[in-house]
């Protein structure tokens, strides 16, 4: 079982525990804000499950119907998570509206806040782990899941502030007001997750610093060639695809050109993990006198 799958399963287990704690906190207090927090946690479970499925699909090797692999499956999961975050925010806004129309005093607020605080601490630590490990493993699904959990942490902090203010002042309307304010923040977070995932589905190029590194490698490692042009890159989950045309002297043998390509591919692979390189070799008269000049 891969590390990515283990982390996804861990999200499911932790999501169940956190949901149970938050549901208990709401049951003890009757707080609209705590209910909203629990509702948001139900989405954590759904998105964690979606991330697990997507990661397993993305890990499948290339086949006849998917010759480039299944890497983009993780982006679909990340989009779903963003949508689910937005749905959770809408639920929270509805509950907040009902609370504004009929504010009520809370039962056992201190106990509820302590329980909610424990759940928030667990979520905060796990969100940090998911984002860090997701970036290391190049897993958009894990990163999106971690960011989603972080919005839950922000939600919980806002809820605590609102409930504490309501208890201290006796203004029970502060409870639903805080829930509504946090829902707006969740909406914004959900939109960011969706937009970032859509960039991956649209074959977004690698970051500028990675592209510059690839250019440097081609220029320094393609000794014997003339130039390289039409360099294109794209990201697909944990995989990076690199394509370019390599111009070689007309008198160069196929064997020599192939050796240069192998050397360049290996160098790029060492610098960019899980990189798939495609090189189209062209004779010298195809030179465009632009692009990447190969250094002698």
UniProtKB/TrEMBL annotation:
One of its GO terms (biological process) is intracellular zinc ion homeostasis. The keyword Membrane applies. It is a multi-pass membrane protein. Residues 11-202 form the Cation efflux protein transmembrane domain. It comes from Pseudooceanicola atlanticus. Keywords: Cell membrane, Membrane, Transmembrane, Transmembrane helix, Transport. Signal peptide: none annotated. It is found in: Cell membrane. The chain crosses the membrane at residues 7-29, 41-61, 73-93, 113-131, 152-171. GO terms for cellular component: plasma membrane. It comes from the Bacteria. This is Protein p34. Belongs to the cation diffusion facilitator (CDF) transporter (TC 2.A.4) family. NCBIfam families: CDF (TIGR01297). Residues 207-284 form the Cation efflux protein cytoplasmic domain.
